[in-house]
């Protein structure tokens, strides 16, 4: 597809996705801008903000937003009692969608995907079709909400006659989508977990985390192995020390958000300088 030569691919990864903000800043400072942005889960949120205004200033504002979220408890705020109470009532999830919905309403500059200056798509997992679904038009906030609906943490998002869960279930680092849309130079912004060995779960809540991680890594490895010869993919470094084992999968650990942004920025700046 002409005009989509350079793509930024932003993967999922919860709070670790703050590192993608540092990578974005380094890319823009190096004069590298996207013709296409595709994202999954937290990468959909970061990518939408970038696609709305692909300038360094946008990444600075996004980094500040991440710091505010970490200080205030973020979209997964609430006491243990509140989370347990919601789980008992709903039987399906721990957190309400309100905080994330409010965040998007307050900070997204456009309402519809097609109004973004840079072409943008994000992915959700359709429950009814058991398939990936790419949001290419319509409500931007609804699409991001669907892409970020982590199973067990947030309720599925209904759009039309379908219900959607987190896009990471079907395409966590969507290199294949960027290539399908015509990208020949792809910058992959990922959270740094793909190279860490997994260990068998030892606690009930770790079972789903490990299963989710296997699925996301398998798809990315398969897509990378099938790349066309004329496609160049740069997997950008996080510069961070990802915790060992299952600690890397904790979704509420926001204590190192600012440091993660700066380390990813420094590592990606160095990587680009050495290309």
Structure notes:
43% of the residues lie in helices and 14% in strands. The protein contains ten helices and eight strands. Strands 1, 2, 3, 4, 5, 6, 7 and 8 form an eight-stranded mixed β-sheet that branches. The radius of gyration is 17 Å and the shape is globular. With 275 residues, it is of the alpha/beta class. α9 (204-225) links the parallel β7 and β8 (232-235). α1 runs antiparallel to α3 and α1 runs parallel beside α10 (257-273). The longest helix is centred in the C-terminal third of the chain and has 22 residues, at 204-225.
What's the gist of this structure?
By secondary structure, the protein is α/β, with parallel strands linked by helices. The protein has helices spanning 19-29, 42-52, 56-72, 80-90, 98-107, 140-147, 168-171, 175-180, 204-225, 257-273; strands at 6-10, 36-40, 120-126, 131-135, 157-159, 162-165, 185-189, 232-235. Strands 1, 2, 3, 4, 5, 6, 7 and 8 form an eight-stranded mixed beta sheet that branches.
């Amino acid at each position: 597809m002409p005009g989509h030569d350079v793509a930024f691919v932003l993967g999922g990864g919860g709070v670790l996705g703050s590192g993608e903000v540092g990578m974005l800043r380094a890319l823009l400072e190096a004069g590298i801008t996207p013709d296409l942005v595709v994202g999954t889960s937290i990468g959909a949120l970061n990518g939408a903000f970038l696609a709305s205004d692909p300038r360094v200033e946008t990444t600075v504002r996004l980094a500040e937003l991440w710091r505010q979220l970490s200080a205030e408890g973020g979209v997964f705020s609430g006491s243990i009692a509140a989370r347990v109470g919601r789980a008992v009532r709903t039987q399906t999830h721990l957190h309400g969608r309100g905080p994330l919905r409010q965040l998007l309403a307050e900070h997204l500059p456009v309402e519809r995907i097609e109004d973004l200056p840079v072409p943008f798509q994000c992915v959700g997992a359709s429950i009814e079709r058991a398939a990936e679904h790419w949001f290419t038009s319509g409500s931007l906030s609804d699409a991001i909400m669907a892409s970020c609906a982590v199973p067990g943490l947030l309720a599925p998002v209904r759009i039309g006659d379908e219900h959607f869960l987190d896009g990471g279930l079907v395409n966590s680092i969507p290199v294949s989508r960027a290539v399908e849309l015509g990208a020949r130079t792809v910058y992959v912004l990922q959270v740094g977990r793909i190279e860490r060995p997994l260990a068998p779960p030892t606690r009930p809540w770790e079972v789903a985390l490990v299963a989710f991680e296997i699925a996301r890594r398998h798809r990315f490895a398969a897509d990378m192995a099938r790349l066309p010869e004329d496609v160049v993919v740069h997997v950008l470094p996080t510069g961070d020390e990802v915790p060992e084992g299952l600690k890397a999968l904790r979704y509420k650990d926001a204590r190192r958000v600012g440091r993660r942004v700066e380390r990813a920025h420094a590592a990606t700046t160095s990587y680009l300088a050495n290309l």
